[in-house]
Amino acid sequence: MTNHLGDIQRSKCIIIIGANPAVNHPVGFRHFLKAKEKGAKLIVVDPRFTKSAAKADIYARIRPGTDIAFMYGMLKIIFDEGLEDTKYLDERVFGIDKIREEAAKWTAEEVENVTGISKELLVQITHEVAKNKPTTLIWAMGLTQHTVGTSNTRLAPIVQMVLGNIGKFGGGVNILRGHDNVQGASDMACLSENLPGYYPLNEATWRYYAKIWGVDYEWLLGNFVSKDWMHKTGLSLARWWAAALNGKDGNDAIDNAGTPLKALVVMGNGITSTAQQVKVKEGLEALELLVLADPFVNEAGIIAERKDGIYLLPAATQFETSGSVTATNRSGQWRFKVVDPLYESMEDQEILFELAKKLGFYEDFTKTLRDEKGEIVWPENATREIAKAVRSIGLNGWSPERLKKHTLYWDKFDEVTLEGKDEVAGEYYGLPWPCWSDKHPGSPVLYNTDIEVAKGGMGFRNNFGLEYEGESLLAKNAPLNSPIDTGYPQITKDNIEKVLGITLSAQEKEKMGSTWSYDDSNIIATKCIEKGIVPYGNAKARAVVWTFKDKIPLHREPLHSPRNDLVQKYPSFEDQKALYRVDTKFVSVQQAKDYSKEFPLNLVTARLVNLNGAGMENRASMYLTRLTPEMFCEINPQLAKEQDIKAGDMIWVHSPEGTKIHVRVKVNPGVAKDMIFLPFHFTGVMQGVDLTHNFPEGTKPYASGESANTVTNYGYDIMCQIPETKGGLCRISKDGK
């Protein structure tokens, strides 16, 4: 989130694309309703008429996978009618002319043809968004889980920048995370293309972390096949199984240092909630070793029909642990332990400590976690290490003491502004990053130049040079009361004296790192904040990203499109070699045939309010299970009538991959006639075969069922490999044929 949930109450207009916070974030949704009470307009754009849509002033049903076309349609109207913020664009955005050129192609007629949203509704939505500022734009997985998910999440901020809504109270782009601490997991490198804090995989970063961890760089290097592989992106969560299958039997080829994946350790991740579950099952069975650490039996161990090489480790729940987590708005929170781990369960770090002992690097692994007596201080020293290391997003100012204090005095913070009073006066709740020092209050709204740097103000980051193709990338404005009233580069050891107009002592120069993000002394950040300068510089946001496959976002039809007539006009990407180490198909799948002839129905998946992710812990509760006792699909009444299907019937849902699931029917007019909706919280049954006999005695949940992801289609984002579970096709039958 650039802003935070409470800040939504300051919005004059809220547009939600691909999210259903009334169901998935019911506590946070009260901020949306409070904004409505204050007069804000609520707009929902979604393939389904959801509970959030039921609260909306305007609802638009959009064809899955066409969000880019819709947003360009908005932009064309904004540009044609002169509704853009020209001053903001001139001062703070690079490459907007390329966006203008693309937007000009998207007439209201073409937008309606591609998205299904009428010209009248498009104009109405655009005017509401453009004329009721500040507007906040909300999204979740409905916008991200596509082959063009990265492009979707680029164009949404561009819309907001065109309107001048980024860096404004009540504005911004606000992504609703799906789980507790997803933001923290992302910050700590749950993605395989970086190290903690989004640091790149290069020698400078590895040497930096070797210093932070107190280990020898050469020892780290020795754990890789070669230096080249130390710098390569790893496998993704979505496609690890391809490495286990090793390109055999027609599976996508891999480039994994000449070896298949042989062992998998899963800690608290419901991998049954990822796409292509039949392939996941095959991958699990191909492994030599599978270790599952979870408070409940991870159903990856159930669908994998194997009798050896599989270990279930009982892990503690969040109530049996303590430490820092990061909320969706970048605020840190301290979690206090409620009870000690029950029975034989262990906290995650204890499991990892035991693993490190067996592998022979326990002492190095825990070196920075120990006090002067050699005792591990957990979790406080882990949080201190994170704060020391992760300068890149400004965790410098976090400490166990500050985060604990905020949690204990949470009632002293204003829910709309996050500002504290009394014991926590002068700080924002949770010290939302960047929090540059132990005196900095945190930053409740990213990229806000209307306030001083010392109070959370900043421009956009300078991370891609000073110019591109002869045009400056530096901003033309600066945060309030900055001594430099225009753009400037990121601050380094070499330029700090010149940019800040200061003189450093020899001792300071000796301690200082090469740049603000590699300076574990924090001298650069401290000097910058004292001067009212942002350590990462002050640049323009890039509407044109020359390092991406598409320099600007472009509409590309889903790989399995119901509109084959549009596939040639809006083709997918070229097939990719070794994308996250796995060859990945795009256009060859998309243009192989007209899938819509055999599979005429759009397939969409989403969450339910009482279930979470793979649903293991929720379906183990008899009370939550009563709300959703079995897997189901929702279909439109007209489709049900045409197919002679009644509510309560069991039907088969078939995918283009040749997979199928057997599910109960619910009839819902909120689902379009050409659509099937599936919740993705179930597993334990696969293609009609009950696998729950594989549960250890006494661990079978109260509800099991088919996984929606058995029939979600092949397709992965071009940049991050998130699966295209929100844009695929299917067909239904009563007899399984």
From TrEMBL:
Domain Molybdopterin dinucleotide-binding as annotated: residue spans: 601-727
Cofactor: [4Fe-4S] cluster
Pfam families reported for this sequence: Molybdopterin, Molydop_binding
Domain Molybdopterin oxidoreductase: 1-358
GO molecular function: 4 iron, 4 sulfur cluster binding; electron transfer activity; molybdenum ion binding; molybdopterin cofactor binding; oxidoreductase activity
Keywords for this protein: 4Fe-4S, Iron, Iron-sulfur, Metal-binding, Oxidoreductase
Protein name: Formate dehydrogenase
Family classification: Belongs to the prokaryotic molybdopterin-containing oxidoreductase family.
Compartment(s) where it occurs, according to its Swiss-Prot or TrEMBL record: Cell envelope
GO BP of this protein: anaerobic respiration
Keyword check for Phosphoprotein: no
Source organism, top-level taxon: Bacteria
A cellular component term, taken from the record's GO annotations: cell envelope
